[in-house]
Every structure is written in C-alpha cells, then in structure tokens.
Amino acid sequence: MFTKFSLKDYNFKLLFLVITAITIGIVVINSADSSFTVRQIVGAVLGLFVMIFISVLNYDFVCKFSNVLYIINIIILLMVLLFGVTVNYAKRWIVIGGENGIQFQPSEFSKIFMIIFIGTLLARYKDNDSINTFKCIISFIVPVAICLMLIVLEPDLSTTICLTLVLVTMLYISGLSYKIIGIALLIFIPLAGSFLWYIQLPNQSLLQDYQVRRIMQFIYPSHYGTEYSQQNNSIMAIGSGQLTGKGLNTSTIATVKDANFISEQQTDFIFSVIGEELGFIGSVIIIAIILLIVLQCIKIARCAKDTKGMLIASGVGVLIAYQSFINISVATGVLPNTGIPLPFISYGLSSLISISVGIGIVLNISLQRSRY
User: Fold this and answer.
1) What is the pLDDT of residue 245?
2) Which of 102, 261, 330, 332 is the most buried (most CB within 10 A)?
3) Residue 7: CB partners within 8 Å, gap ≥ 6?
4) How many CB atoms lie within 10 A of CB 140?
C-alpha cells in the first residue's frame, strides 16, 4: 500500500516549486481581499498534508480502485445537480453541514478522478497494443461523455473545455494514430462552425444566455464590450502594473482592484492583481514557476516505470498547463471570459486540495521510478 523510499529519492524540487507557488498565491490573495487569507492558509496546510501523504501511497494501489473513483465522481456530480448551491447562474457547489458548513466543488475533484480513471483505462489498451481499436475508442468516449455532460449541466463550460483537452491529450499520448486524429478533426471543425452559428439563434438551448454573451463579446468586442467590461478592466489593470508593479496591498482608487472594477479578483481574475501589483517581472516569475512544475511532471512521466504512471503524470502536467493557459488568457483578453482558477494561486479550497492530490500522485510516480 505504501511505497518504501529513501529521502534522497524524494522529488524535493517539485515539492519546493509547489510550496512556492502556493505561498505566492496566499500573498496575492491577501492583497486582493484579506478576508479570504485565513481560509486559503487552512486549505494550503490541508493540501500539503494530503499531498505528502499521497506521495508515499503506492499509485498502483490507487489505480486498483480507478473504477470506484469513477463511480464516486459520477455520484458527486449528480449530487451537485440534485442538491447543489446556485451562485452566479451556476450550480457547482455542495454544502455539507448547513449554511455555514463545508462547501466544495465536485468538478474540481472530477479532474483528478478522471485522470486516474482514464490513465488506468488507456494503459490496459496500450500495454495490449490495442489503443487504436474501436473497443478502446468507445471505452474512452462513453465514460468521458457521461462525466462531461454532468459538468455541462451545472453549467461549468470552462471546466468542461479544460477537462476535455486534458483527456484528449492523454489519449493522444497513449499512441492514438494520426489517421483517427484526422478523421476526428474532419468531424470536429464543421461541428464547431455549426455550434457558433446555432448559439446565435434566438431560441438556442445549448448554452445559458450569459455564456452566449461572453462568447459574442469576444468575437464582437465593439458591440458587447461596454456591457461585459471585466476583461477590459483586467487588461487595464495588468498594463497599469508596467515593469515592476504598484506593490502589494496598494489601497488607492487609482488601482483597478481597489476601485472594484473587477469582481471576484481572488479567484478567476487573480492574474489581474498579479499584473497590477507585481508588474511584468512578477507575472513572468509566476508563469515561470508554473511552467517548471509542468516540466517536472513531464519529466517524471517520461521516466515512469509503466504506462499508467506515464499517462497519469502527463495528465496532471497538462491539466496544470491548460488551466493556467485558460486563466491567464481570459485575464489578458486572449480567450472569451470564462471562470477557471489559476492552479496553486487562485483562492479556492477545492481547487487547491484537488491539484495537491494530483501532485501527490506524481510525486509517488517519481518515487517508484527511482527504485529502477
């Protein structure tokens, strides 16, 4: 159940990078809104404890329960739809213990559960040299589609897109043939065009009105920019930081943060605080730390002892990469406005603990490799 290891084999480099990122996150959140600081510190301590515990838990043992984890994942996603709490048009949270109880977001844990499940599933087909068979493709599509459908119904479009990218990347890494990829692209591109046409119809039922307006605001900023100006304000905040930033805890109406031009800056738009208060240099340092974490995950994946270890470590790495890219791209206006946390940095205990679980598994994959 537990992995026997020597301290010299432990990947302290990855652990140090993660602790550094989490610490920076606490500092930036405190500057954005100090009322969230204590809870983020509690989440950080709990996340680090979980991470270290899982890092010595044999990932082979965890993968034996991949089907159980998938069932648990589906159950908690169903619970959100049945008993979840609605905030800002979306029902994404479950509260345990009454109004002041524990609140968590199942879709955040779904990312890690699905990485473990799909990594284990694809490894079996890869090891049997049957990754490009019809059976494998269907075995991949059906459980993924069920999970994504439940997340879409919350609705949580950003998590759906991010998780789809992660799982499809894992399928590609497992050895999917370019012939199948080509066929998929020939199907996907017309569907994407049809989707953009359909959501503009008056009676469309795929997306919520606010989601359609966010996409339209990105495509036609001159028509929707005034109504949906959060991204414009975020870009202004980041630009105002210039090279070195205005400094942490700046409390003046001159700052976009303190003028309340952006709501919930401690979560989805945390990068606007980073850009304004730490400037270009601080932003680059934080991006570099996240990039180093991703590269460490990829390095561990390449040296994993088996296929499932390689796929799971890759999955966690690309999850951090895609999620960071989406968050920063939204804050800088590169992508349409959609809410997703910046890993390790944004406020959110569910996000922090779930990604800590993922890093813990990657650390154990690294330990397993060190024995060979």
Assistant:
1) 86
2) 330
3) none
4) 21
Nearest to 307 by CA among 166, 130, 165: 130
> Tens digits of per-residue pLDDT, 61-103?
999 999 999 999 999 999 998 887 777 667 788 887 666 667 8
Query: Are the C-beta atoms of 317 and 323 separated by less than 8 Å?
Result: no
Buried b (16+ CB within 10 A) or exposed e, 144-170: beebbebbeebbbbbbbbbbbbbbbbb
List C-alpha distances in Å: 79 to 106, 117, 210, 353: 9, 20, 24, 20
Residue owning tokens 């999917």? 176
To the nearest 10°, the Cα dihedral for 146, 148, 149, 150?
90
Query: What Cα–Cα distance (Å) separates residue 361 from each residue in 78, 172, 304, 316, 348?
Result: 26, 21, 12, 9, 20
- DSSP line for 354-365: HHHHHHHHHHHH
Flag whether pLDDT at 256 surpasses 60. no
Amino acid at site 238: I
In angstroms, the CA 145 to CA 328 distance is 27
Q: Please, are residues 333 and 232 in contact by the beta-carbon 8 Å criterion?
A: yes
Question: What integer is the mean pLDDT of 155-176?
Answer: 92
- Residue 96 is predicted with a pLDDT of 75
Closest listed residue to residue 342, CA positions, set 88, 95, 108, 37: 108
Cis link prior to 106 (omega < 30° from 0)?
no
Are the beta carbons of 231 and 333 closer than 8 angstroms?
A: yes
Q: Which two tokens stand for residue 123?
A: 């490894």
| pTM for the predicted model, two decimal places | 0.90
Return the closest-CA partner of residue 352 out of 4, 50, 70: 50
Amino acid 253: pLDDT: 42
Which H helix or E strand runs over 93?
A: strand 90-96
| Residue 271 host element (H or E) | helix 270-302
Q: What is the pLDDT of residues 128-154, one digit of tens each?
A: 889 999 999 999 999 999 999 999 888
One-letter amino acid for residue 144 of the chain: V
Q: Alpha-carbon distance 245 to 31, whole Å?
A: 13
Number of helices (H), then strands (E), belonging to the chain: the values are 14, 3
Structure tokens at 327: 């968050």
Tokens of 252: 């003046």
